């Protein structure tokens, strides 16, 4: 009876951590680049909703020269096309000019945590975006908007998915790895040592019987 209990205990100690390490998220998280683009789109939606510019008004989209200026330009362009705005490269053909004057983005991974004793480590991902928009009416020459806008998006991802959501060729998508939690650093090693000790004890216990 004692042998059965010890064997069951050891099996659980080794099985459940192994099972947890193989745990997979039910969906593939958005890449960090996609999250940045979503942040830009949220800002663009707020700007155009408040400015009351209808899709029937042709818009020219330009950007200042800065690193990764293609990211906000692409995100804003996709948003305008999705909302059926008329988009031109030449402002001569447009009624409204939209210029992206600045862009910054920052990604932060929160401390690791587990939702269960042997669950896979997760982290809260925070994506901050700041973008400068200048919106001008080409007919009246009135500056409709000239300001900085911010957005923050948060979600939760598995720590082992971080390498999949980052793009090594785009520094904006890379952030320091999240700090390990107390369970990973202290408790799990003791559990493994305990299971190993129990296995050794069981081995010698069985041999003496």
Written description of the protein model:
There is one protein chain. 40% of the residues lie in helices and 25% in strands. It has 5 helices and 5 strands. The longest helix has 26 residues. The protein is rod-shaped and about 95 Å long. The chain has a single domain, classed as 2-Layer Sandwich (Double Stranded RNA Binding Domain), CATH 3.30.160. α3 links the parallel β1 and β2.
In short:
This protein is of the alpha/beta class and 209 residues long. It has helices at 2-21, 32-51, 70-82, 162-165, 182-207, and strands at residues 59-63, 87-88, 96-109, 122-137, 143-158.
Do you know the CATH architecture? 2-Layer Sandwich
Q: How far is the N terminus from the C terminus?
A: 13 Å
The parts where pLDDT drops under 50 for at least 5 residues are: 14-26
Number of domains: 1
The topology string of helices and strands comes to HHEHEEEEHH
What percentage of amino acids are in beta strands? 25-35%
- The chain-level structural class is alpha/beta
Mean pLDDT: 81
Write the layout of secondary structure elements.
Blueprint: H1 2-21, H2 32-51, E1 59-63, H3 70-82, E2 87-88, E3 96-109, E4 122-137, E5 143-158, H4 162-165, H5 182-207
Parallel strand pairs: 1-2, 1-3
Antiparallel strand pairs: 3-4, 4-5
Helix pairs in contact: 1-5, 2-3
